[in-house]
Amino acid sequence: MVIEVKHVPGKKKTCKVMIYALSTCGWCKKTKKFFADQGIEFSYIDVDLVTGTQDKRKVVDDLKKWNPFKSFPTIVIDDKDCILGFDEEKLAEVAKR
Q: What gap in Å lies between CA 16 and CA 26, rounded to an integer?
């Protein structure tokens, strides 16, 4: 079971940021760009690109722990907080950490 988690290095590693995204989602792309532009290190999984039934099930199960609606993007901060969707105000708070 190999699930590809992509990592984007940044100048700031103020917290652990994990984004559950879709490769075709404009809001997901905007969220990734926001963190990259802020120089914040983050990781992401493009859920729609995960192959294999078991791998897909594991990623979706992990996503549902944070967001039972399975909407995108789902941004998990420090394995304890979650931001649903592109919420620039909440993302800016993360950037200030």
A: 23
DSSP state of 62: H
Architecture of domain 6-96: 3-Layer(aba) Sandwich (3.40)
Cα–Cα distance, 58 to 1 (Å, whole number)? 10
Residues 6+ apart with CB under 8 A from 20: 44, 45, 47, 59, 62, 63, 66, 67, 72, 73, 74, 75, 76
Q: How many CB atoms lie within 10 A of CB 67?
A: 18
Q: What does the domain layout of the chain look like in residue ranges?
A: 6-96
Q: Which two tokens stand for residue 57?
A: 């099930």
Q: What is the pLDDT of residue 1?
A: 54
Interval 1-37: pLDDT, tens: 568 899 999 987 778 999 999 999 999 999 999 999 9
- DSSP structure class, residue 12: B
Q: Considering the entire predicted model, what is its pTM?
A: 0.94
